[in-house]
Amino acid sequence: MDVGLAARADRLEALLPQTQCTKCGFQGCRPYAEAMARGEADCNRCPPGGAEGIRRLAAELGVAPLPLDPSHGTEQPRAVARIDETLCIGCTLCIQACPVDAIVGAAKQMHTVLPDWCTGCDLCVAPCPVDCIAMIPVTGERTGWDAWSQPQADAARARYLSRKQRLVREREENEARLAAKAAAKLEALRQEAASSEAERQAQERKKAIIQAAIERARQKRQAAQPLNAAPADPVDRPEPAPAAGPEPSDHSGDSGHSDHPVPSDTKRPQ
């Protein structure tokens, strides 16, 4: 994206409510803003922004406002997620789905929503395997930007970006751990003396497998280096993530960890 389009995308992004709900068909507010800047998406695909949001975007784009596209949702009062703590099994799937780290919890511990941080995106509802999350309206009859303020949008965007940075950091740390394990295993095989030709051949096969894995990881890191921004192509709303295991693993991505402290009385019965 050239400088002019990037600057316009910046202005359009600043006009979005930063709920990161993906109802527009993009993976967040920034990709939607970039698509509008390129002329690839209309300004009427953001239900959280509502009619007022459409007017703001249309003014920036220099086009006439359009009615909200009903295929992307309807303008409604803002809602906040609420977890039924009597049903929560501590699976962490809602934590992984929340784009702004508004859910506190850990594996096999009760989860709790921070209502002041929740953007009402409802991305946590579908992944819940026990249907213990409900969206509770909290703004009365107020909808769109009447139910959401610019400071709230700015804070939500900051938390969203912080989460993205944390996930990148955790993935890099995980990959570094795996690389160190592989290198240590390879060195151990090199130091190990074979007592027979068959054992030597087995060691060589193991070394080749480990070296190939190390090279694949290196190529993966190299290929991912320029991909710092979220994709700007339209996508479906994300599917629920795989269930998180009870123990930490070496798998990269959002492990269900939250940067918020978990109250000591939220442990689930064994």
From TrEMBL:
Coiled coil: none annotated. It comes from the Bacteria. The keyword Coiled coil does not apply. The keyword Repeat applies. Residues 79-108, 109-138 form the 4Fe-4S ferredoxin-type domain. InterPro entries: 4Fe-4S_dom, 4Fe4S_Fe-S-bd, 4Fe4S_Fe_S_CS, Elect_transpt_cplx_RnfB/RsxB, RnfB_subfamily. Residues 4-63 form the 4Fe-4S domain. One of its GO terms (molecular function) is electron transfer activity. Residues 248-270 have a biased composition (Basic and acidic residues). Residues 213-270 are annotated as: Disordered. SUPFAM superfamilies: 4Fe-4S ferredoxins. Keywords: 4Fe-4S, Cell inner membrane, Cell membrane, Electron transport, Iron, Iron-sulfur, Membrane, Metal-binding, Repeat, Translocase, Transport. NCBIfam families: PRK05113.1, PRK06991.1, rnfB. This is Electron transport complex subunit RsxB. The gene is rsxB.
